[in-house]
Amino acid sequence: MFTPNSKLLKNGDLPEDVIMEILLRLPVKTLLQLKCVCKHWYALIGSAIFVNQHFSQESNQEHLLIRHYRPDEERYVFALYVDEIFSEYEEPDHLQMPVTVAALMGPLNGVFCVVSISGFGLDPSSGDYKLVSIQYFWNEEMDVPHYPSLVSVYNSGSDSWRHFEDVDLVNSSRCAYRSLCNTYLNGVYYWLTEFNDTDVAILAFDMSSEKFQEIQVPDCIKSKEGDLALYDSSIALLSCDLDKIDKCVDVWVMKKEGCWTKILTVGPFQDIKWPLGFWKNSEVLLETGTSLLTLYNVYTQKLRTVEARRKENGFFIYWVFSYKESLVSLQGEGNKCKLWDTSSDFVKDFFK
Question: Residue limits of the F-box domain (predicted)?
Answer without folding.
Answer: 8-58
